Each structure stands twice: as C-alpha cells, then as structure tokens.
Amino acid sequence: MPPEQGDAIRPLKVVIEDFLVDLAQANRPQHTRRAYASDLHQFADWHAGPLATISAQCLRAFFASLAHLSAGTRARKQARLSTFFHWAGRQGLLTSNPIDVHRAHQAGSASAAPD
Fold first, then answer.
1. CATH number 3.40.50.720 is the correct assignment for the domain at 3-112
2. C-alpha span between 30 and 32 (Å, rounded)
3. 64-79, pLDDT tens digit by residue?
4. Collapsing DSSP states into helix, strand and coil, what is residue 73?
5. What pLDDT is stored for residue 9 in this prediction?
6. Runs of H (alpha helix) within 9-97
7. How many CA atoms does the CB half-sphere of 25 hold within 13 Å?
8. Is 36 in contact with 80 (CB distance < 8 Å)?
C-alpha cells in the first residue's frame, strides 16, 4: 500500500495533530493553533472515521449540525476545515478535497434556485 493511502486511513485525530505540529513549526501564534485545534477536534468528535472517509455529504451533514451557530462562527469553522483539507492534499493524504466538492455543490444548488 502506498504511504499516502496508509496515512489517509490513520485516525483523523492523529492527522489533525500532525497538522497542528506543522502550524507550530510555521510559528503560527498560540491562539491561532488553539482555535484550529478546537474546531478540528470538534469535527473529529463528530466524524469518527479516518480522513479518507470524509466526503462532501459528510461535510454537509456536519455543517447542518452547526445551524444553531451564528453565520460568522459557521464560516470560521468551514474556513479552518478548508485550510486543514488543503494541507492534507499538499501532504498527499487526499486525492480530492471534500470541501471543494462541497462548495461546488453549494454553488450548483444556488444557481439552480428559482428566481
């Protein structure tokens, strides 16, 4: 099995910890790392599967579970997940980015809405 496939099936929380280490090595401020850790661990608590099992449908369900939060809070959580998934793609852990698929679906739904 290629290393990237093995990495993609590691527990999501382990991959998140690797991301947080990279943030620290990039000298990101402590409060930024804490905020990323909080939002990403919230998602990992919600999604028990490995990174490779996260789909656009999974993200839609997660974001729907946040409907009670303010629009700004939801946008912040989505942005942090987006940064994490882009990092995972650069690491070779994902072959496609589920947040990009989710956004494309959102854009398609918005354009299909009646006037």
1. no
2. 5
3. 999 999 999 999 999 9
4. helix
5. 77
6. 12-25, 30-46, 56-64, 71-90
7. 6
8. yes
